[in-house]
Write a structure and sequence with these properties.
The complex is a heterodimer. By secondary structure, chain A is an all-beta fold. Helix content of chain A is 0%, strand content 54%. Chain B is an all-beta fold. The chains are: A mainly beta, B mainly beta.
Chain lengths: 113, 114
């Protein structure tokens, strides 16, 4: 069974503060993704990466940065957290692009006050 | 505009009954679809994918794709209380460097009552 873990599982942040969400996978997958989930919107892609030290923008990248320091680790960074970034964030990994299944982590619930 | 739309928003099914979920895409470039299931407090987990016209069956789950109408459906036979969850339809869209984004619908909440 593919394994994707996320930390922290929940976080409360203040407006204007910096937030870092971490993701770790033990699947030996090349691709990693960050999505956010909001009620009424399903999940939407923020950033993704196909190799260490490289990231690509997804559909809603504004206000977010991503970092992939190794194949196993992928971080999402909110430099200046805003109220509108309150959401549940999911990390996923998949094998070499194509039509391979994306395996999701358990999510991080972020509340920005 | 939501590129992938699902209906109904919620569905109640008696245990042992059939649940039918619908999904329509507005983008003819979408040719490959997934159904994901999300239990409360967990991440989504893939149920099955479909990219050929017609039916695909995996256990109690049957997906149907009609490319001409861009319509995808999921049918759950002999529904169990453990099937109570949020179900997503997602289209697979190619991105740079071989990546593939999942374009999710807004989901259907299924409740199975004993």
């Amino acid at each position: 069974e593919a394994a994707v873990t996320q930390s922290p599982r929940s976080k409360v942040a203040v407006t204007g503060g910096k937030v870092t969400l971490s993701c770790h996978q033990t699947n030996n997958h090349d691709y990693m993704y960050w999505y956010r989930q909001d009620t009424g919107h399903g999940l939407r892609l923020i950033h993704y990466s196909y190799v260490a030290d490289s990231t690509e923008k997804g559909d809603i990248p504004d206000g977010y940065k991503a970092s992939r320091p190794s194949q196993e680790n992928f971080s999402l960074i909110l430099e200046l957290a805003s109220l509108s970034q309150t959401a549940v964030y999911f990390c996923a990994s998949s094998d070499t692009g194509g039509y391979y299944e994306q395996y999701f982590g358990p999510g991080t619930r972020l509340t920005v006050l | 505009q939501q590129k992938v739309q699902q209906s109904p928003e919620s569905l109640s099914v008696p245990e042992g009954g059939m649940a039918s979920l619908n999904c329509t895409s507005s983008d003819r470039n979408f040719q490959y679809f997934w159904w994901y299931r999300q239990h409360s407090g967990e991440g989504p987990k893939a149920l099955m994918s479909i990219f050929s016209d017609g039916d695909k069956k995996e256990g109690r789950f049957t997906a149907h794709l009609n490319k001409a109408s861009l319509h995808v459906s999921l049918h759950i036979r002999d529904s169990q209380p453990s099937d109570s969850a949020l179900y997503f339809c997602a289209a697979s869209e190619p991105r740079r460097q071989g990546g593939r984004a999942l374009i999710f619908g807004t989901g259907t909440t299924v409740s199975v009552s004993p």
